[in-house]
Amino acid sequence: MAYKFVDNYREKGARKQLVKHLEKRGIEDKNVLRAIGKVPRHFFFDETFWNQAYRDIAFPIGDGQTISQPYTVAYQSELLHVKDGDKVLEIGTGCGYQSCILLELGADLYTIERQENLYNRTIQVLPYIGYKPHFFLGDGSKGIPEHAPYDKIIVTAGAPFVPDVMLKQLKPGGLLVIPVGDENSQKMVTILRVGENNFERIDLDTFRFVPLVGDKAW
Ligand code: SAM
């Protein structure tokens, strides 16, 4: 069934307020802030909840999943340092909000989701609002080896460990951003591939993501 969308929402500057709020919380990358200011987040919500769309909160999107909190999306996007034309793999498409931000930053985006219901909805919503990544349905904990290597990989679900397969799919100089920890809290981790078998890891702030479920995950 094709989805039908109505965009008669008057957000009365709420999106600009969200950008200001994220700046105050420490997001500095002007391109990330511009992207947040551009993507219509209310499209990812049921009409009943449009008034929640520009609050800095995660929100249930069905099938036990959430649209990520804008601060988390901005934080991961800032860490990823996307350059125009970068080949980026996103693991955990969900509703596709983070995907739109990455596309606004100039990514050539490959995005994978394991839940068919979400996938089916997102492949209709994103093109409708003008965003066209390469969509995949399946277990992203193994990456997508057929399209590797990538300049950047971003994981938007909490992993119990860093899967080796993801590191192998990075180009030399490539960067992985992944939340790693237990079910309740994860550290945001960045891993830079500095050589064939040489990686630099940095552990950053604590977040709480839904679990990365799959062959190389929970
Ligand atoms: N990026 C989304 C956004 O912009 O709001 C939020 C993603 S949500 C926090 C995490 C997503 O990862 C869920 O949709 C979940 O189904 C998906 N996921 C979990 N394990 C996965 C796996 N192994 N492969 C692909 N997607 C997975």
From TrEMBL:
Q: Which reaction does it catalyse?
A: [protein]-L-isoaspartate + S-adenosyl-L-methionine = [protein]-L-isoaspartate alpha-methyl ester + S-adenosyl-L-homocysteine
Write down the superkingdom of origin.
Bacteria
EC numbers on record: 2.1.1.77
What keywords is this UniProt entry annotated with? Cytoplasm, Methyltransferase, S-adenosyl-L-methionine, Transferase
Indicate where this protein resides in the cell. Cytoplasm
**Top-level EC class:** transferase
User: Where is it chiefly localized?
Assistant: cytoplasm
Cross-referenced Pfam families: PCMT
Q: Where are the catalytic residues? A: S68
Q: Which family does it belong to?
A: Belongs to the methyltransferase superfamily. L-isoaspartyl/D-aspartyl protein methyltransferase family.
Q: In its UniProt entry, what is this protein called?
A: Protein-L-isoaspartate O-methyltransferase
- What is the scientific name of the source organism? Sphingobacterium pedocola
